[in-house]
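Hello Y.,

Per our agreement to keep a running log of every chain we model this quarter, I'm adding this entry. I've kept the format consistent with earlier entries: sequence first, then predicted structure.
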Amino acid sequence: MKVAMIGTGYVGLVSGACFADFGHTVTCIDKDAGKIERLKAGGIPIFEPGLDVLVAQNVKAGRLFFSTGLDSVHDADAVFIAVGTPSRRGDGHADLSYVYAAAEEVAALVGGFTVVVTKSTVPVGTGDEIEAIFKRVRPDADVAVVSNPEFLREGAAIEDFKRPDRVVVGTEDERAREVMRELYRPLYLNETPMVFTNRRTSELIKYASNAFLAMKITFINEMADLCEAVGADVQQVARGMGLDNRIGGKFLHAGPGYGGSCFPKDTLALVRTARDAGTPLELIETTVRVNDDRKRAMARKVVRALNGDLKGKRVGVLGLTFKPNTDDMRDAPSLSIIPALQDRGAIIQAFDPEGTGEARGLLDKVEFKSDPYAAAEGADVLVIITEWDQFRALDLDRIKLLMKQPVLVDLRNIYKPDDMRARGFAYTSVGRR
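Predicted structure for the entry above:
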């Protein structure tokens, strides 16, 4: 089938490359000429493991193309809208201006029957608005507007696309259903469930899923605080809970709070949508507030590790991105923790395997280092914020020798408290004695 993918951000580029790998002919479209030229030259504007190879293979095979123009829309069987929906300043609603602008441009160019698919994360009712745009701009157009939310985890997006838990499709148009079935036909070999529902339900499934996972993370973070107060171990609590099949162990890892491109903006957008509908979601509102407070609380944990005095102290930071295996800095805990430490007089030296480029534009007065040992050198305390694999087996004897004093604050519980104390570290973790 012929696919036009509007937007070459995280969702659009990964989805386009994977559809091409399924055997479809895909044109990824973006107004950013520099980004398109970079993609044509073999460059990848985001860090996602395996994406560079996947793109190169499908470009070479003649199935994946990049363009700043919308010519491919006319002959496309399906046009995916995968543009950004950031939080709108002032009220937290999703900014849908890019979605609606794309819909207007696509409406003017569609040819025969075309399935217009919303891949961007959008509030309930957005599909209705897109449909209204098509009726206004091209009342003669033969289109079906479909919701097909993405459930991609940064760092594992290709695997998530090719081996998903489910594919959700919101449409009541039988022709559109057949197009969507054909697009995802390769997944039938894996017996992937395809959930067909109406469009508004599909839109809400995405928000409800992300809000629930954000709430699960926030729950275990609050349990971690309780564990510290009563002398329990949050990792054992999480394991004991997670072995219950009704709960599951995923997203029960205590840490400095959630961040990234989805959870912060999606929980906020859902809260606003629910309030507008007259049905406030108090659990999710509390989740948003507790998560914001969580990040600042992690800075206070570092302050306590140095007995309340950070003035002139050198703090080594390992990990800046919101999670490992991505260069995404959006709403990363480091963006709250580091300024809070600087406000107390700390000097920050930091290392991240992939996020330094983004971090330079977001963090002031930080000394960026080339490796974890450089970040530890001369530090009064070393803080692990992101659990990159390369931080899991550090040469701790070398770290101890490099540091001014052996104080380590592990916000991801990578190391074992007893082992660290045996090595002579003053060690602080999350939710453990």
